[in-house]
Each structure stands twice: as structure tokens, then as C-alpha cells.
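Give me C-alpha cells for this 411-residue protein.
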Amino acid sequence: MDFAIPEELRQLRDSYRSFLEREVRPVEDRHRQALQRNEWGPDQDADAVAVRKASARAGFYACYLPEEVGGAGVSTLGTTLLIEDTGASGMRFSQAAIGPPDPAAPSPVLLQAQPHVRDRYLPALAAGDTTMCFALTEPEAGSDAQAIRTRAERSGDGWVLNGTKHFITNADDAEVCLLFAVNDAEKRANGGITAFLVPRDQYRVVTQQRTVSDTHPYEIVFEDAEIPDDHVIGEVGYGFFTAMNFLNAGRAYIGAQCVGMAQFCLDYAVEHAKQRTAFGKPIGRNQGVSFQLADTAVDIEAGRWLTYRLAWLVDQHSSAPAGKQSSAPEGKQSSALAGDGELPILESSMVKLFDTEMAFRAADRAMQVLGGQGLMIEVPIERMWRFIRILRIVEGASEIQRLIIARSLGL
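Here you go.
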């Protein structure tokens, strides 16, 4: 086994870190007072868009996409490293510099669109000129995503969509929506759910849903939305399987985000523990503080290599001969321990579970070490704590990941 990061990815990482310091840090500093007051408005939106476009020009924002659609063809592992560095920077505006795991960024699922549709949308998305949203969750279908009720019915040469989606990030600004709808109520996930690319003028944004974090999703409604047949993504009825082919990379990206943010929390808490004195000595000399931070360091290292391995497994699957690639529905957990071309579904659940729980522990411990300062919105740990709390629920709650892992044990 070779645990070394390839030299070309080290160079890519160094270049990206330089970009963050050169292009993003001045923006972060310019808005520091607003961020410390937890304020986000039009001025911040405009500069976030500017960061996104600058990153796209530099080749980072959509680096994970193929070159022919505006990406750079960077591997899952390479993208994972950049996302980790984004989180570790602690900068709010750095989130605009890299696409994943933000649902507003161009989804690789769109690579399954018909060529003329793909070429219409993906280059503009990759350039940061436009954004998208991902619509799966519904009021009555969260963890049980197969229970979605949004309907897709044939109509002439196209489809008519009706239903409601909620907790949809970026729905208000997106130019296009990647929607999952039921075309066969009996088959559902086994051939009855289809993915569609829906233009913005075919759905209504009805409610902003305020969350504990500083990002707020929306509820959106489809009322007799008319979609041409060429806007089906992948095969009719197999939208779930289309998404599954990209699920594992997405979880590597969430894992990397968590590892990076946990590292930022640890670094911040360690510096505080060195400087803050109580009872005549730095608080870091007390085992009640130092042991918490030592545990966090171990957690981060475990999460880091668990995540890197998942990214490597995804890349192994992508490079495997077509005949050796497999795609098992969730519930039939494959394991790519030997890199034999199977989708690493079990490993992706482990990463999603461990890293989100680990990062929350890291933020919570950092907040405890900082004491009263950790509760202040002027201190970035509080923002990290709120954001990471959401990650334990979205994209597959921790309990769902435990269920998948338990099933792999025969339970």
C-alpha cells in the first residue's frame, strides 16, 4: 500500500492554497465585520459570485468535471484534497471557491444528459456564470427518499411534472434544477424514478426555510411543469441508479469538508489554549483541556485517511474496465476492499457517518475550550459548530448510515 499523495496533487494543492490566500483572504477581510455580526446580504452575495468566477478561471471551481465541459479532469482524490483545504482555511468566502459539496455547483450527474443538453448547461455552470439546485427531498420523503410523491407523466413528446420539494439549497438563484420524480409508482426506485433537468421558469419558490446555519434552503412547487423528453437525465426510470454512480464521490467531498473544518477548529482551540491563562498558567497545560484536543487530533487523522481511501476507491472504480464496474442499489452494500471495480457504498456510509460526527465533536470541544468566547458569534467556532450540525442530517442522516453499515454485518 502506498499512502503518499501523488506529487502532481501536492502541486495542485499548493496552487489552490495560494489562490485562497491571494484571492479569497482579501475578500474575507473586507467583510470581516459583517461576518462577525452574522450578516449576509447583497454585497456578500456579489463578492461570493466574484470568488466563484475567479476560481473557475483559475481552474479550481469545477476541476472535478471533464475538460470537454469546462472542468480540469481532476481525480476524486485531488478534489477531496482541495475541499479539505477549503474547510481548513476557516474562511466563509472560500466555500465559493470550490464546487463540491455545494448543490449549487455543477453536478456530475449532468454528464448523463444528452450531449446537446449537457453542452447547453454544463459549460456555463463550470465557468461559475450560473448555478443549479438538486431537488430530491420532499415534506413526506426525507431519509426514505424512495417515498417521493412528485409525479412525472408522459404528455406528447415530453413530460408534465407535479409536486413539492423542500430543503432545496440555492433554489432561488439556480438557473436549472435537477429533479427526481416518480414515473411508475409500483416500481419506484427499481425502475420507476426518473431524473429531469428542469429550467427555472418551470417551478415556483414558495418558502425560505430558515435553519440554524447561515445557509437557508427553500420549498419549491412544480405545477404542470412541461419538460421536453430530451431533458431526461440517464434512462427513464433509473434516476436513482444514475445518482448512485456519483453518490460515493459526493460523500468523500462531504467527508473532506468535515476533516478540513475539524482541523480549523483544532488549530483555533490549540492557539487559544496556549494564550489563555487561568490560575497562573496557560489552560492548555491542564489535562482537562489538553486531553480533549489530543482526542480531536486523533479523530481528525482517522477521518482524513478514511476519506482519502474512499476517494481512492471511487477513482479505482472510475478507471476499472467497463465490464468490471458494478452499481448496487443502496441496501445491497458492496465493498471495494480490493479495488475490484465495485462501488464503495459501504465505505461511503462509513465516511459520511464518522466524519460528520467527528467534526461536530471537534467543533463542540473547541467551543468548550474557548468557554464563553466560543459562544460568541464574533468567533468563527460558533459558525462552524452550527454548520457542521447540519451535516449530520443532510445527504443521509447518521442513523441511515448506521443502518446501512449494520446491514453489511448481517443485522
